[in-house]
Amino acid sequence: MTWDSFTEQPRVADLLAGSLRHDRLAHAYLFAGPKGVGKKRIALHLAKAIFCVNLPADACGECVQCRRIDAGNHPDVHYISPDGASIKIDQVRALQKEMAMRAVESSHKVYVIEHVDKMTVQAANSLLKFLEEPPAGVVALLLTENAHSILPTILSRCQTISFAPLQPEVITQRLIAEGIASGLAQVASQITANLDEARVLCQSDWFAQLRNVVIQLTQELKQRNSQALFTIQDLFLKHDRFKEALPLFLDLLILWLRDILYVQAGRQQRLINGDQQDVLQGQALIWTKSELLHGIELVMDTRNRIERNANPQLALERLVLQIQEG
Ligand SMILES: [Zn+2]
Predict the structure, then answer these.
(1) What's the 139 CA to ligand 1 centre distance in angstroms?
(2) Domain 204-325 maps to which CATH number in 3.40.50.2300, 2.60.120.280, 1.20.272.10, 1.10.3720.10?
(3) Average pLDDT per 10 consecutive residues for the chain, totaling 326 residues
């Protein structure tokens, strides 16, 4: 994995690769951005690129230096993350002691602090002093999901690098590259902008199962009997976790109904459930456009009602009846 393979954050990768190549790394960086957008991966890659013996200004991932950093036991690369709810002053002091020692492997030392916004006041003050007088060759990589809660005095001593939220296509491509089926990858990337969360979704059997229920239910909703209601009752009866998964279930339902609309409009290239085109084609014949639009509205309304603590089963049964009444 080299800098040019960070397709999810190309701007950040370019910037850091350039600074490294021109020997113009800052003493301290603040990587700011939402969860799951690659802050830690890029921090690790930067650390490897500083020490890698094979590639200048990049990381091979295979040399001893790269592998030790991957394994978390490189003598000149140190990590801190919150010990419980916060980062404590003792952790910062221990880090400073490490950083004051001569580098073992080269003239560089790197430290990474995750959730740097979660420092106690004492820890933050101690870090601030350290940032004011950085030892030569030491690079600080501070990571946060809440840049707005970082002390301005700390901010002013770091170069802030903003990590953009990931685009759905980027998440889809990444998951497919990891061996996840393209259909599920595409759906998951619409549900969350967090790569880790999307991966966990795809890897759980539950996710695929929920989508199958959505497909079954949208078929049953157009039958004139009570099968759709039985399906709902069955779900609540047989699966304890269905109640918690309900917002996800409703999101999947919205994506599915939208896809039927796309099929009707002949815009197959927009499909999210692209792996289910045959089933979508079939359902496009039994739903009308206005039923679909109204249905999506009702599902969104149900989602809001559940967020406001409506009884999940009653809310879902009501949704079924409302859709069937048209
Ligand atoms: Zn290497």
Answers:
(1) 18
(2) 1.20.272.10
(3) 88 96 96 93 96 95 96 94 95 92 81 96 93 91 95 94 92 93 94 91 92 96 89 90 92 97 94 95 96 96 94 94 89
